[in-house]
Amino acid sequence: MSEQNGDVTTTEQQTETGTETAPDIEALKNEVAKWRTMSRKHEANAKASAKQLEELQEANLSDSEKAIAEARAEGERTAVTKLTARLASAELAAEAAKAGVTLPDVEFINFTKFVGSDGEPDSDAIKAFVKSLPKANAAPKFDQDALGGSGDGSGSKVKQLTREDLKRMNYEQIEEARRKGQLNDLLGIS
């Protein structure tokens, strides 16, 4: 026991006086590299073992278990396909609304064409399709006055007066409006 105490005391004295040498940094770096290499090796072995275990489990499945696994996988693929098509549909509708165009009827659109290989909607394909659609015109393509209308749906070229307008008018003003055709709607004249 006295020897142990002596060793501890000697070490403490060496540390206090600074005679103990600092650990070699190169040796520590080499030790870290060695453990890192061993860790990667064991990680690769673990992945390989997990893959082998999975293959063995698949090989030992009964026919009914294989059928169930295949049906489950097919169901997942179908669900993902439907979901991505719906997502592409929503993005297509949003892009069309932003561009101010009207989409064709949904039964004429194959939404799976707008899904990328990664299963996400392909925004470039969606934008290209929306750009190819004709813009909706706010103004009619023909001259309303050439058809005998003012564009207000009244069917005449002159502004039509209402009963409220007539209440504020005297006899001469009403007669003048009748001659100009401003009372045709009220009188039932086309």
Largest sheet: none
SSE pattern, N- to C-terminal:
HHHHHHH
Radius of gyration: 43 Å
Number of strands: 0
Our estimate of the beta-strand percent is: under 5%
What do the pLDDT scores average to?
79
Description:
The protein is mainly alpha-helical and 190 residues long. It is built from seven helices and no strands. The protein starts with a helix and ends with a helix. The model is unreliable at 6-15 (pLDDT under 50).
Keywords:
190 residues, mainly alpha, 62% helix, 0% strand
Brief digest:
The chain has 190 residues and is an all-alpha fold. It is 62% helix and 0% strand. Helix 3 (63-99) crosses helix 4.
Explain the layout of strands and helices.
Blueprint: H1 2-17, H2 25-59, H3 63-99, H4 123-132, H5 163-167, H6 171-180, H7 184-187
Helix pairs in contact: 3-4
